[in-house]
Amino acid sequence: MFYLFFLLAVLLAFGLLFSVIKTGRFGVWAKTFRIGIVGISIIVFSYYFIQKSLDHFLENSMTIQVVNKLPFPLDFYLIKVTNDTDSDLRYETKHLGDIRNNYYRIDYLNMDSSDQYWIAAYMGKRNLVYFSQHSVPNKNVDQIIEVQNYIVQSSKLAEIAKTHIEQLKFDNIKTAIWMTLGLLLLFLNLGVLLRKDKAQIPK
Question: Are 71 and 123 in a shared domain?
């Protein structure tokens, strides 16, 4: 998503620059470009926000329910370990979000190319207080993970998980920055497109 929002922000910036071209053949092309990129941006942002608000249920997937039994809210992450030989593609990291005491969060995983996943939880931004490794012998059975102790089952695997979680956080920050800039440029382009030329007041 980062590259998509980066590209949209760049194109919207060009659209804003093209707004100064108002006459001649280039003026027509500039306005056509601006209308096109504004329309595409509205569609992309609308799809993104709608998709984020919907339940991410997957057919033929395994349901994982993570329950926080600890007294404090924790920030949970889920790492699916795939069978891919490429180290960059082997780990799929998802942010489950903050879970309060005696609350839970549900996610869905397609385990066709995987037979294990990890659960990691942070107290604060950098304090990893929980890590567990879970094998999946039967992919047709949903799983419930109750987090009842502050425990790190494997320091070696936890370090790998922390690396990928930090990468996910960094990617999310980059995406948020370019998405915010893209939205700002979209509103500026809309304002310029919809602005009516002020009629000249006769002297």
Answer: yes
